[in-house]
Amino acid sequence: ELIKNTINKLNEYQDFQVSLKIHPVTSSINEYKQLIKENKLDVKLYQKESFQELIKEYDVIITYGASSIVHECVVLGKPMVLLQLIKDQLTEVSTYDENIISICKNLDNIFSDINNAQNKKINQKLKDQQIEIVIGKVDGKCSERAANEILAIIK
Known about the structure:
Layout: H1 2-10, E1 19-21, H2 29-38, E2 44-46, H3 51-54, E3 61-64, H4 68-76, E4 80-83, E5 102-104, H5 110-119, H6 124-135, H7 142-154
Parallel strand pairs: 1-2, 3-4, 4-5
């Protein structure tokens, strides 16, 4: 329902080309094809294609829930809107700064959230801080820190 409603909302304006990239392994492409057909959605569907290749062709990425896509967009500096339309743990991604990601909590505001995402200027310092929060320090000592944590647990 979330996907259908979001696509329908985006299709209200002809200025948008909407594409849907579903999970390459856990999603059923036939179910999504059926959803698109039954609801007459104007959307291009992707599944096995590389996200890194697709991201180059789009101005803004819209996603929901915890996903590696969020991390990739931050690392690549791609404008992103994160849908948080319902209150549950899947949609609450508290580790991200709204200076980097636009949060959409109401589909009626999605167009302003898209504009906000496109207008964000993410400087390298802010980007580096987010990367460190999400994946840790990139200083060549990750294995050493992991080994020390394991040793501390087993002692």
